[in-house]
């Protein structure tokens, strides 16, 4: 997998912005009349400063990190900003690129093992990643014949501290047990 890379973070009125998270917040403020349309437009111009997927730890960033953890993308590839991706790839020797013939010879089930999925779950918990990654990981595992029950997410997330402070979950403690409770209510 080769991602398009995240956008550069935005800044508006001295505040760091995160796409989606802050767009929704300021959209609510616009609807409440606490900011003007011109202010909202100014914020929107500041938040989308470059090509790429959302720069917050939403689904795209979470799944890029998971792909890297599973061994399905270049090491370090999840965090290469979109506007520098071409430069970063052009500086990699061919033997280290995604086109490496020895790597191509390995099919996904040989790379994405039980241990790799455990590491991906730990990454998800440590990064405070998007909770819908649980569904994506279970689906990917199922496609290659690996059983990935919700209890495994719960067990591993209870052992893994959240160590990343990124929007939208910044300063919150993400634990799968909370997600399990939410999923059971659906």
Features:
186 residues, mainly alpha, two-stranded antiparallel ribbon, disordered C terminus
Describe the protein's topology.
Blueprint: E1 10-12, E2 15-17, H1 21-32, H2 37-47, H3 59-69, H4 85-90, H5 101-104, H6 108-111, H7 114-127, H8 133-143, H9 150-159, H10 176-185
Antiparallel strand pairs: 1-2
Please describe what this structure looks like.
The chain contains 10 helices and 2 strands. β1 (10-12) and β2 (15-17) form a beta hairpin. The longest helix has 14 residues, at 114-127. It has a domain at 59-75 and 107-185. The protein is mainly alpha-helical and 186 residues long. Strands 1-2 form a two-stranded antiparallel sheet.
Radius of gyration over C-alpha positions, nearest whole angstrom: 19 Å
**Sheet with the most strands?**
2 strands, antiparallel
Main β-sheet, spatial strand arrangement: 1-2
Alpha carbon gap, first and last residue: 31 Å
Oligomer: single chain
Structure annotation, total helices: 10
Weakly predicted, low-confidence segments? 170-186
Fraction of residues in H or I helices: 40-55%
Counting DSSP E segments of at least 2 residues, the number of strands comes to 2
Mass-distribution shape: elongated
Task: Output the helix-strand order.
Answer: EEHHHHHHHHHH
How much of the sequence is in beta strands? under 5%
Q: Structural class, please?
A: mainly alpha
Instruction: Give the overall pLDDT as a whole number.
Output: 79
């Amino acid at each position: 997998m080769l991602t398009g890379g995240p956008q550069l973070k935005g800044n508006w009125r001295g505040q760091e912005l995160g796409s989606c998270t802050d767009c929704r917040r300021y959209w609510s403020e616009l609807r409440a009349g606490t900011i003007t349309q011109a202010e909202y437009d100014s914020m929107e111009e500041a938040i989308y400063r470059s090509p790429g997927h959302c720069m917050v730890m939403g689904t795209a960033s979470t799944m890029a990190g998971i792909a890297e953890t599973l061994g399905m993308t270049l090491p370090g590839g999840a965090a290469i900003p979109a506007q520098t991706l071409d430069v970063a790839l052009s500086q990699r020797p061919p033997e280290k690129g995604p086109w490496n013939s020895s790597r191509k010879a390995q099919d996904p089930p040989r790379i994405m093992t039980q241990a790799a999925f455990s590491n991906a779950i730990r990454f998800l918990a440590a990064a405070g990643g998007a909770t819908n990654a649980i569904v994506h990981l279970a689906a990917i595992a199922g496609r290659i014949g690996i059983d990935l029950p919700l209890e495994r997410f719960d067990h591993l997330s209870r052992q893994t501290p959240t160590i990343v402070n990124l929007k939208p979950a910044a300063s919150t403690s993400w634990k799968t047990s909370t997600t399990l409770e939410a999923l059971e209510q659906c």
